[in-house]
Amino acid sequence: MTDKRKRIRIAPKSLKRVKETIRKLTRKSWSISMEERINKIRIYLIGWINYFRVIQTPSIFENLDGWIRRRLRACLLKQWKNPKTVKRNFISLGLTKDQAARIAYSRKGIWRLALTQQAHFALGIKFWKKLGLISLKERYFEFVKV
């Protein structure tokens, strides 16, 4: 049986608006440092999650977290530009030479490469936390506990 209780959710229009704002902050042609970009995103997301902390469907935050990290991985791949730079940076992030070469010399676009298993391993959640990116899901559950 399905649960027929009504729940407080985010309106599709609000979700669309937050995605548009994140798209603006993660434009691949915007030449700012990754730390500055993440700082702007963090400031925006803290205010956004504080407003929407009353919702009862936290899976939206989990999906949005993954989408934001994918956008940031694509920005980073774009910043690295040269395949040799991509390979060198992925090796320094813990990939083997073969794995790094597979990504660096791939003919896939950066959006698709941002979804690969190697990119997830090298540019995982720990990497983004170290740079200062917040997790909407974790922040939501901090509010729920209180």
What secondary-structure arrangement, pairings included, does this model have?
Blueprint: H1 12-25, H2 34-51, H3 59-80, H4 83-92, H5 97-104, H6 110-113, H7 117-122, H8 125-131, H9 136-145
How many strand units?
A: 0
Overall pLDDT level: 89
Query: How much of the polypeptide forms β-strand, as a percent range?
Result: under 5%
Elements, N to C (H/E): HHHHHHHHH
Main β sheet profile: none
Helix content: 55-70%
List the domain count as a whole number. Answer: 1
Computed over alpha carbons, the radius of gyration is 17 Å
Query: Which structural class matches the secondary elements?
Result: mainly alpha
- Looking at how many chains there are and whether they match, the oligomeric state comes to single chain
Low-confidence stretches: none
From the spread of the alpha carbons, the general shape counts as elongated
Distance between the termini: 31 Å
Number of helices: 9
Commentary on this structure:
The protein has 146 residues and is mainly alpha-helical. The chain has one domain. It is 68% helix and 0% strand. It contains 9 helices and no strands.
Which key features would you list for this structure?
single chain, mainly alpha, 9 helices
Question: What's this entry about, in short?
Answer:
With 146 residues, the protein is mainly α. The chain has helices spanning 12-25, 34-51, 59-80, 83-92, 97-104, 110-113, 117-122, 125-131, 136-145.
